[in-house]
Specification:
With 225 residues, this protein is mainly α. It contains ten helices and no strands. The longest helix is centred in the N-terminal third of the chain and has 31 residues.
Length: 225
């Protein structure tokens, strides 16, 4: 029998990708400008290579953050600590849903707190601009992965509840991968995609799904424990 502690269940894999897809509109608002700018002034193949490199760097940063959070959460091996993390993950998902719906902006305070780390990290991006090569674009993506973002914080809390560095890195990598399709589509000039992401019905659907997912997680933990 495969040890469940070393296996990420398919439901978690799909959940990580879904969270990335659901939050793509938020990602586009936060990172869409820099992502689009990377492809400006180059031929089609060069532009695509640099954009893919940028997103690859961003996913690497998410994986690194996931590993760090998972390892930190795993230091304390107590049942109530793990239960608390799972409750926190559900609450963060609900908070992200409320944030998406513009019903509650509490995550803004977390993003402001994150600027303490972002300000010095941001200095690393300056030598990489303009990103004239795939390597520079990847480095820029790696730096941009630390941008203060409520969606990323929600995903990090959710991935950290496993208390494992490998799982944390894997799930955050999948989360980042989930954001890529929409980001790439918008970067190549698909204005219809941007219009859909900005539509009130889409934001409402995503927000309600995130809230429902968070509530479901909390109810599952309550019933189990």
């Amino acid at each position: 029998m495969i040890h469940t502690g070393m296996v990420v269940e398919m439901s978690e894999v799909l959940a990580a990708i879904f969270l990335g897809l659901a939050g793509s509109g938020h990602c586009l608002g936060m990172c869409g400008g820099i992502s689009t700018a990377i492809g400006v002034g180059t031929s089609g193949s060069q532009s695509e290579t640099r954009m893919v490199s940028y997103h690859f760097g961003r996913i690497l940063s998410y994986g690194l953050l996931g590993a760090a959070m998972g390892a930190a959460a795993g230091v304390i091996d107590l049942p109530y600590w793990r239960i608390g993390l799972r409750y926190a993950a559900g609450i963060m998902l609900i908070a992200m849903g409320l944030y998406t719906l513009n019903w509650w902006k509490g995550l803004v305070y977390l993003e402001r707190a994150g600027k303490i780390l972002w300000n010095p990290v941001q200095q690393l991006a300056r030598p990489l601009l303009p990103a004239n090569s795939p390597l520079q674009a990847m480095g820029l993506g790696a730096v941009w992965g630390f941008l203060p973002c409520g969606l990323v914080y929600s995903a990090l809390t959710w991935s950290a509840m496993h208390g494992d560095a490998i799982k944390g890195a894997y799930l955050m990598g999948l989360f980042g991968l989930g954001t890529v399709p929409v980001m790439l589509t918008a970067s190549i000039g698909a204005h219809w995609m941007t219009s859909v992401l900005k539509a009130s019905w889409f934001k409402s659907s995503v927000g309600l799904m995130l809230i429902a997912w968070g509530v479901f997680n909390i109810l599952m933990i309550s019933n189990h424990h």
